[in-house]
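Reply to dn_fold:

You asked what the input looked like. This is it:
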Amino acid sequence: MPGSDWPEISIIVPSHNRVGLLREVLDALAGQIAGTPAFEVIVVADGCSDGTEGVVASYAAPYPIEIVRLPGQGPSRARNAGARAARSEFLLFLDDDVIPTPGLVAAHVAALREAPGRAVLGPYPPEPVPAGDLFRLSIKRWWQAHFDNLARPGHRYTYTDVLTGNLSMARATWDAVGGLDPQFSHAREDLELGVRLLKMGVELHYAPDALGWHQEHLTASPSSALRRARHEGQSDALMAIKHPDIAAALRVARMLRRPGARRSRKISFVRKTGFLADRIVKAGPGLLEKLERLGLVKLRRRLKNALLEYCYLRGAFETLGNDWERFSAEPIHRPDHAEIEIDLAHGIDAAEQTLRERRPTSVRLVHGHREVGTMPWSPAAERWNAHHLRPFLARRAAYGTIPWLAHDKYGGEAWRWEWFEGLRRLGNLDYMAHYSEGQQQWQRPTPPVEPRPYVPDRRISTRARQAVRRILGNGICVRAQSRSRDETLTAARGWLLTFVFFIHAMIGTAEYLGPDAHATHYVLKLLVPDVSAFFFLAGMSATGMRGKRPGAILRQSLVFLLFAMVSHIGGFAILLAGHAFATPLDAVKGLVVPLITGTDTSSFVGWFFIALAMARLYAYTFLRSRLLFALFVGITVLAIRAGQHLGIPDNVFEWRNWPTATLFFLIGTRIPDMRKLPNWAGTTALVGTVLLALVNRHGLWRLGPCLTCDPLFAAQPMIGQYGSIFVYVPQQILFVVTLLWIAQRTARTAPGAVARYFGRASLPILLMHGWVLLTLYPGMLAALPHQETPFLYVAVYSCGVVVHGLLFSLFERPIHLIQRAIFKLSYLGSARRA
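and this is what came back:
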C-alpha cells in the first residue's frame, strides 16, 4: 500500500444489519494486491441495530476507515452521505454483500485514470455456490446473463446497466449529475442515475477485472423478491413521471398503457385487492415451494411471474394514486423513422466514420437499393457509435449482410446469394437441419439425415394444446415414455392412489345423493374393484423374493401388520375424539378386538395392509415349495374352521381376501420387464376392463351377461365380494395393463409428476388416507353440489388429490417418523433402507 496520506479513491459501503458480510468486505479490501493506489473506506451504517458501528470502530484496518451514521433512510441517501464524507478524487460504490477480489480497486482506478469522465461498471456475479432450488437458479441465470451481455463486444449500454453494487466515477461526474435521487428510497435509484448519466453523455465502461462476488445466496429470498417487485413498481412509476421521455422503456408504462380488455381486467383486479398484498408476500413463497416439490415446474414459473407482476402493479398504483387513469391515457412516444440512413455500399469504414461523427439514436442501413436492417431507437440508451456497427451486422443483421458481402467478394448477383442453402440455417436451432447441411457442404460419405417432419397431435386442437402448454408445460401434449421400470411402477402406484381417493369420496357422494345417484353407481361399479391392483404392483416390486430368507419375509409381513395396527389406533383416536362410542366398555372393545382379530378396524385401509402381509407369506411359500404351500393352506383352513366353532368373528384377519390377494401378487411377480406398451394394447385393455366390470354380478352364469341389469352391484375386494371370480380376475389383469400403459405414457408429464409424488410415498400416504376419511371427507363432500354433473366428478377427484398432497406435505415428517418406528419394531432397519 502506498504511503500517501491522501487517498486516490474513496470506497463507499452502505450497510443495514449485515455485520457478518460487512466484516468479510473489509477483510477483502485489506487483501488488495500490491501496488493498489491508496484508498479510504467509508461505511454508512443506515439504521443498524446489530453492532455494526462497534465492529467498524474497533476494526484494525490497514487503510483509513470512517463510519457515517444514519437513522435508516434508505440506500440512496446512504450513498449520498458517504459521497459527501469522501475526500478522494474518485468514488467507488460497493454493496455490503459484494466481496471484492484482490484486483478490484486497482482495476477501477486504472479505468478512471484512462478516462476520468467515464463511469466504470464492475461485474459482481453470484458467488459459485451450489443452488438447491429453482429460485436460486433463476437468480444466478439473471445475474450471469446480465454481465455476459455487458462483456459482449459492441454492447450498447442502457440505463439498466448502471448498478451501484460495483460502480465508480469521478467526484466531478458525481457532483455534476447530482448524485442519487432520494425519492427512490428502496429500489431503482441506480437505474435512475443511469438515465441522467446517459442524458449527460457520460461514457459507460465495463471493467471485467474489477470483479466482486455477490453473496445473493445469503441475502435474497422469494419473500424479499416479492417485496422488491413492489418497490420496483413504485420506483418505475416515479421514474415515468420524472422522465416521461423514457416511458417506452419502462415496464409500468407498457403495462398500464396497453389497450385491451385483458389489461383492463388485470388492472381492476389489482386495484381492488390491495388488502391481499401483504398476505400474498407471506403465503406466495410457501406455495411456490410446494409446486416445486410436486414437480410442476412450468406451473410454478407461471405462478411466480403472476405474483411478481401483481406486487409490481400494486407498487405502481401506490405511487400513482388517483392519477393512474391520466397516466394510463398518455401515449408512448416512439420515432416513426430512423434518424439517419447509411449506405453500406460505400464501405464499412465509411459507415463507421459516419456513426462516429453523427452519433445518431437510430440508423437505417441499406446497400444500394436493398435494405439490410435498422439499428433501432431505444430510450435511455447510449447513442450509436462506430464500435457498434460490426457486432450489430454479425448478430442482428446477418441475413441481410451476407448476400452483399458475398457479392463484393465472390461476384454474382446479391439476390442469388439469398438462396444460398447455408444462409437459411441462420437462427435455426434444429440440430438435424445443421447436421444435414454440414454433410451436404463437406460431402461426407454417409448419407444425409433429413429432419423428421413435425406431425401435430390431432387428438388435441391447436388452441387447446397451446392453452394447456401455457399452464402445465409441453410435457402434457406429447407422447412421453417412462425411462425405467421403477419409474413406471411409481407412477402406477400414484395413479392408483388417486383412484382410491376418488373411490372413497364417491362412496360418500352416493350416500349423500341417495336415490338420485345413477351415474355415480356406474362409476363405483367401474372403479371399486380396481383397488386390488395394489397387489399386482406389490408383486411386480418384489423382485428376487424367492431367494430371500424366511426371516426377512416374516419381518416384511410384520411391517404391514404394524401399519394396520397403527392405522386402526389412529382411527380409533379420531372416533374417540368424536364421541363415537356410547360407553367406555364399547370404546375398549373398539380398540382391543380389532387388534386381536385383525378385522373391523376403525380405519378403512387396515384390510389392505393385513391382506398384503398375508399375501406375501403365501406367495413366498408358493415360490419356494408347492408342498409347503399346500400344507400352509391346509393349516389355514383348519384354523379358520376351528375359529368359527369357537365363536371367533368371521373373516378373521381378512382371510376372505387372502386367495385373490395371493393370486394377484403371484401374477405380479410373473409380469415381465415391460419395454413399451403400444397404444392398441392399452386401449384394448381399457375397453375390456370396462366391459367386464359392467357385466360382473352375482349369478352371472345363471342369469347371463347384462350391462345395465344390476348397477348397484360392485365387486368389493375389501369385504370379499367378487361377483363372478372368473370375470373378476381377468378384469383386474386388464385393468393393471391399462394402469401400466397410462403410467408409461404420463410418467414424464406434469400429471405424471403428481402421480410419482404420491407413488414415491404410497404406504405413508395410504396410512394417512384412512385418517383423512374419518376427519375431512364428510365435511368436504357435504360442501360439494349434490347433483350428478361432470363438474361434481372433476371437483371430487381434484379435491381428493389436492387435500392429500397438501396434508402429506404438512405432516410428512411425523408420518415418516411413524414409518421409521414401524420398521425398527420389525427389526428391518431404517426407513431409508426399506
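Residues 790-825 form the longest helix (36 residues).
Hope that clears it up.
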